[in-house]
Specification:
It is built from 13 helices and eleven strands. It is of the alpha/beta class and 370 residues long. Helix 1 crosses helix 2 and helix 2 packs across helix 3.
Length: 370
């Protein structure tokens, strides 16, 4: 049985007859009505050579003869050709309401592209509950965020490779020059090339079972024999943060049972704990609350957005800044568990050197006077 593939065309207007146009059916109908290949080609405003070649190609593809090719006689359809036209009419008649509804849905979707007041911004980012909330809130205002969640390192690399307009990542406040975060991000971000935008101030901590039955209070408790940890993958901002916190606590990855077990998101970590597949994992409070888990806060961190300096004046980025600075967004952010709207600096363009003080420049030596 031959399969059917659907396609569509964009045009300034559309006909009122066939709901789904198919070039083969148009050719067969024209041949039947006109009685010759040349007349059919003229009717379709195509060349004789094009129509003749297309019909031959379709016969080869379908493995059946479509036209009775008798010289000196009017061209006519074979029985198979007639059955194709009949089958197509039956399908169009039965599916007309569904096809018309689908076409209108597609037209509504494409209307966004032709509306100069609507913007689409592609954003690759570390997983974050606030970003999902922003996407839902911004859409009715004409700003559609096309978000792909991934590790912070991969998100910034995608920005630098031109695969997105903006990236999202997170770090501790004022990470030191020799910090794990500096090692992960310094080579990817350049003052003068990138622009940093404030987004969120949030709490990261240990997600634990409801009621915290194991009485976990901090990283040191993760060294207990038999306590199962679930991690995030290398390159994610939360993995960078964990390594940072472990170094500050004088601990090593080998002291955590499950350090090498990875989950792709905060939600997945929370689910692993909720299903008793693990006892603890680092993540955001919103993910813990969503799964009904306990939460042990460990540290505050900043979630940053970053774009190329050249893209800052673009309509998409300016629309995002306006949304982030709105009172509605401030209220939404404040209501999310584990987020501090007052400290977020949402929508503010921040100094890369000030927020991430990793770069040191030697001052030029004063000229020696004689």
């Amino acid at each position: 049985m031959h399969k059917v593939e659907l396609s569509y065309l964009l045009s300034s207007d559309r006909g009122k007859d066939a709901l789904i146009r198919n070039p083969l059916m148009d050719m067969l109908h024209a041949v039947r009505e006109q009685g010759s290949i040349s007349a059919a080609a003229k009717k379709l405003e195509l060349s004789y050579r094009h129509v003749w070649g297309a019909l031959k190609d379709w016969e080869k593809t379908l493995g059946r003869t479509l036209i009775v090719w008798d010289k000196g006689q009017a061209a006519r359809l074979t029985e198979f050709g007639e059955k194709l036209l009949w089958s197509e009419r039956q399908a169009q008649a039965r599916l007309a309401p569904q096809i018309e509804a689908l076409r209108r849905d597609i037209e509504r979707a494409f209307s966004t592209a032709f509306d100069d007041q609507v913007h689409v911004l592609t954003l690759y980012a570390s997983h974050d509950a606030a970003l999902s909330a922003l996407r839902d809130q911004a859409s009715p205002h004409g700003l559609h965020l096309d978000i792909r969640f991934m590790g912070s390192v991969d998100a910034i690399a995608a920005l630098n490779a031109g695969r997105c307009m903006m990236a999202g990542f997170h770090t501790l406040d004022q990470p030191a020059a020799k910090s794990v975060a500096a090692q992960a991000y310094r080579s990817l971000l350049k003052p003068g090339l990138h622009k940093l935008i404030g987004f969120a101030h949030r709490t990261q901590g240990l997600m634990v079972a409801k009621g915290n039955p194991l009485r976990i209070t901090g990283l040191q408790d993760l060294k207990r024999p038999g306590l199962r940890y679930v991690n995030r993958a290398e390159g994610t901002g939360t993995r960078v943060l964990l390594d940072e916190l472990l170094a500050q606590a004088g601990m090593g990855p080998s002291e955590l049972i499950g350090y090498d077990r990875h989950e792709p998101s905060h939600t997945a970590v929370a689910q692993a704990i909720a299903s008793n597949a693990a006892d603890a994992g680092l993540g955001i409070e919103a993910a813990a609350r969503e799964k009904g888990l306990g939460f042990v806060p460990l540290t505050k961190e900043r979630y940053h957005l970053v774009c190329l300096k050249s893209e800052l004046p673009s309509p998409q980025v300016q629309a995002l800044l306006k949304e982030l600075q709105s009172r509605d967004w401030q209220d939404t952010l404040q209501d999310l568990p584990g987020y501090d709207g007052a400290q977020a600096q949402s929508g503010k363009v921040l100094s890369l050197r000030t927020m991430l003080p990793w770069w040191h420049y030697r001052k030029p030596k004063s000229p020696v006077t004689q």
